[in-house]
Amino acid sequence: MSVSLGVLGPVEAWDASGAAVPLKGPRHREVLARLVAARGRVVPVDVLTADLWEDPPEGAVGAIRTFVGALRRALEPDRPPRTPPRLIVTVGPGYALRTDAVDARRFEKAAEADEPPLKLLTSLDAALALWRGPAYAEFADALWARPERARLAELRLRAVERRARALLDLGRAAEAVPDLDADAHAHPWREELWRLLALALYRTGRQADALNVLRAARHELAERLGLDPGPGLRDLETAILRQDGELAGPGDAAARVWASATAAHDRAAPGAGPRLEAAVGLMRGLAVTGGGGLLAAREHRAAAVEAAEELGDPDLTARVIGAYDVPANWTRSDDPGQAARVVAAARRTLDRLPPGTPPGTRARLLATIALESRGDGSARAREAAAEAERIARGLEDPALLVFALNGAYMQSFAHTGLSAGRALIGAEILDLSVRHGLVSYEILGHLIGLQSACAVAHFGTADMHAARLDELAERHDRPLTTVFTTWYRALRLAEDPTVDLAAKEAAYRAAVAVLEPAGMPGLSAGLPALASLCLRLRHGLPPEPGDSALYGPFEPWVLPILRPDADPREVPDPPHDLLAEALWALLALAARERGDLGTLRRAQSALLPASGELAGAASGLVSLGPVALFRG
């Protein structure tokens, strides 16, 4: 089994599929973390003992060996008996870790890459995304961890600075401002962060703000360290006062608007906490613009959560996490790794909230967990959704309740055939949002209503929701909404027996065209190929020839249809989401064609609760026809 290790946050291990590897107790995790921190060097047993215990107990050496044995079994479960371990090896008087599959090492390599600005920016974004929290998070007080934590924190700040320089080099100065602002105030001794922030502000036309930043840097350095600004800050201030032409950089109109929107708040509330909260407010608006706006909002939201945690204020972190109450309809995350980090941060924050915290704060964290855990089918996420809804109903706060109901919707996929329950959730969201002027949630309510009506072929009801969605999209400039209604109309046409195949294919081509620039990889990955396959199968045609990789996340359930050598028995259960019925139907179809009765019974059993629905139509995107066709 190929295992990767993570220390940029809580210490974790993952198998080749990305599933977490259980590491037993905290001592096991600390031994593993200590070996990672050694970076391939041997750690003698007596050093491990001294690191784990201030006053080692009798039998400590034997305990270390027990911990190492358990770790070896967890990390190499397929290793044959009496064969030497490959990951944690015994070397002389101690142990060493022999692997480069560690997030800290990947980060270090990417953060120090020498590449052109655009490629460097991509590399640094990927590197910084590896951080799930402070390095070696649960061992912050361990003496052995302090040097490595400090080294990695320094590398991260250098990567942040390099990323800002890349943005400046690319003429995207305004994009660099929010992160630089937060990082400069969080690390006021870093002169380069102040310099880059001032330069970015100057290049977005904010000369006065740039000079104010340099004055703030001078004050921070003098107050905290008793130092005068270095030559980099002094030279920049002189160049700005002279309006030196060499400071100018290419502009980005959209990014300049973003930066300008934060300027007034920056001046009125200069603290890091207020800035982070204000930034989340901007991200909420940005997220519904589609395309680059959605991607930027997601990226900055993750950075804001991380920055809030680093400030060590759980109340602030809770507000930063909970304020991003952007409605979500699609049940596959655009960035599963980022979603998992947000969930982990929300759970850590719940544990750290002080007594007397308002219940609404807890409800927002719980609703966030439910939303960001979409598709995983976990009991903890369902419990979080239920508790958030219970708290919200007790507080009689409509904005909080629709947020909590959105979490309940995301956790309403325990099995197939639950569209009726989702229709009730959508109806309540719609009622609340119309009565209280919550436009974004009004859109969500109509989307849920449209999908639920599609699932049971109530296309008249779905048409009504689609028409209202188009009106709201035009009135409130919500381009992402049009993506869903365009796809719905392609599905609607596909289910009309009087329309020929060519017209249906043309409708789906139009739907793909509006999907591509939408900036929703969780929706778009593999969907065009899946739509084509569903349409052809619906008309009794074989799949079009092509690479199975085009199906993206749907590939496991499509392979037995495409390739005779693919074994349906090896296909896992589909995720708990809007396309579960379609994927189970594909598996049933492949099993029936192969005469694989065991897999066929498994798929038919899963589809039983959805017997009165159209397979896949609950998505509002594709359909394989009545589920009953796959249960006969």
Percent of residues in helices comes to: 55-70%
Cα-based radius of gyration, to the nearest Å: 27 Å
Number of strands: 5
End-to-end distance:
39 Å
Question: What is the number of domains?
Answer: 4
Biggest beta sheet attributes = 3 strands, antiparallel
- Give the overall pLDDT as a whole number: 88
Biggest sheet strand line-up:
3-5-4
Structural class: mainly alpha
Tally the helices: what do you get?
28
Beta-strand share of residues: under 5%
What assembly state would you assign to the polypeptide chains in this entry? single chain
Task: Based on Cα principal axes, name the global outline.
Answer: globular
Low-confidence sequence ranges: 251-259
Tell me about this structure.
With 632 residues, this protein is mainly alpha-helical. The chain has 4 domains: 1-166, Winged helix-like DNA-binding domain superfamily/Winged helix DNA-binding domain (Arc Repressor Mutant, subunit A, Orthogonal Bundle), CATH 1.10.10.10; 171-247, Tetratricopeptide repeat domain (Serine Threonine Protein Phosphatase 5, Tetratricopeptide repeat, Alpha Horseshoe), CATH 1.25.40.10; 269-411, no CATH class; 429-630, no CATH class. It is 62% helix and 3% strand. It is built from 28 helices and 5 strands. It has helices at residues 26-37, 45-52, 60-75, 103-111, 117-128, 146-169, 173-186, 191-203, 207-225, 231-242, 253-268, 272-287, 292-311, 314-322, 336-352, 359-372, 379-395, 398-410, 419-436, 439-455, 459-476, 479-494, 501-515, 521-524, 527-538, 555-562, 580-594, 597-607, and strands at 4-6, 12-14, 43-44, 88-91, 94-97. A 3-stranded antiparallel sheet has the order 3-5-4. A two-stranded antiparallel sheet has the order 1-2. A hairpin with a 5-residue loop joins strand 1 (4-6) and strand 2 (12-14). Helix 1 packs across helix 3 (60-75). The two termini are 39 Å apart.
